[in-house]
Amino acid sequence: MTQLLKQLSNLPLTFGGAAISGEGGGYGFGDISESESIELLQEAYYLGLRIFDTAPIYGFGLSEKRMGKAFKKMRENVFLVSKSGVTWHENKRVDMTNNPSVTQAMLEQSLRDLDTDYIDLYMIHWPDDKVDIRLPMEVISKAKLQGKVKNIGLCNTNLADLKKAGEIDRVEVVQSEFNFFQHRASEEIFNFLDENQMSFMSWGTLDKGILSGRVDEKRKFDSSDCRSWAPWWKNADNKSKFDVMKKITPLLENHHHSGLELALAFNLSFPELSTAICGVKNSQQLNSLVKALNNLPSTELLNELLELTQSVLKVK
Predict the structure, then answer these.
(1) Contact between residue 174 and residue 189 where contact means Cβ atoms under 8 Å apart
(2) Alpha helices in the chain (DSSP H)
(3) In contact, 97 and 137? CB cutoff 8 Å
(4) Which of 33, 84, 110, 133 has its CA 20 to 30 A from that of 96?
């Protein structure tokens, strides 16, 4: 058995759907029109990307709807990923639950918003201490038997939930935050993924723009960008990351590399990783992303940068 996602595309990249939904609210990264979104999605396809990741919370359904429109006439040629568990009330207050009735309702709504009869990979978005993961897994497994879901995955998960979920049906894919600054998954779950031939997707590949250099301490965000208000961003220790980037960027540039190339090289240096989710807002960013794959830093440089990073962080 081979890892599912490694069979799908020549490019180890997945389009991150939160980038095309900012003005809708929820989890998004700034304004982008529907026409711009659809053109960007289709350009990504023609550049070789085949996996497109989304979730209902991205723009409160806007991301899914735009993906549905972009790929309506080429549905069989793309691999769509969506999720259940992060929902919201009428007042747009976000709620996180793996209640099986919510899982069922979210799946049906995602099918409508994506304008499709099936979702290639349907994932449970976050663990829920109040609900045994086997309960939503039963809902998704039944949907799989009905053809509404082709494959099942877990996001932001842990070993205990992975093992419980596997009692109900096969988990093909795990998705977690993973990047140059945050790589706990390699210590916590990679061995299990190897043993069970599961694919791994990284989100946060560019660490919300810090690694690519598009975000530093001076960057201001629009109100439609969740980084302008989200506690998980405002309370994060980003200063230490900015300090690291100031130290390692000159070394990267001396070797004719960019932070974007570093971010991709780090993630792709792990054979367990099948695809790296990256968000882009325009054609220039998209083309830079694809081009970066052809100029990745060497293993020696990567190790040197990791050592330098550790030395900077120890001073803190």
Answers:
(1) yes
(2) 34-47, 62-70, 100-113, 134-145, 159-166, 185-188, 190-195, 231-234, 238-254, 259-268, 283-292, 299-315
(3) no
(4) 33
Convert the pLDDT of each residue in 236-254 to its tens digit. 889 999 999 999 999 999 9
* Phi–psi pair at 11, nearest 5 degrees: -100, 130
Map tokens 């109040």 to a residue. 130
Residues 286, 176: Cα–Cα separation, whole Å: 22
Classify residue 174 as left (phi > 0), alpha (psi -120 to 50) or beta: beta
Burial (CB < 10 A; 0-12, 13-18, 19+), residue 2, is exposed
> pLDDT by residue (tens digit) across 64-114?
999 999 999 999 999 999 999 999 988 888 999 999 999 999 999 999 999
Higher pLDDT, 231 or 10: 231
Do residues 71 and 41 touch, judged by C-beta distance below 8 A? yes
DSSP 211: T
- ∠237-20-29 over CA atoms, to 5°? 25
Question: Domains in the chain, please, with CATH?
Answer: 5-233+270-295 (3.20.20.100)
Phi and psi angles of residue 201, each rounded to the nearest 5 degrees, phi first: -115, 135
Amino acid present at 130? K
The closest alpha carbon to 52, from 135, 42, 60, belongs to 42
3-state SS, residue 83: strand
∠ Cα 10 288 209 (to 5°): 105
Cβ atoms of 63 and 18 closer than 8 Å? yes
**CA dihedral (6, 305, 234, 288) positive or negative:** negative
pTM of the shown model: 0.96
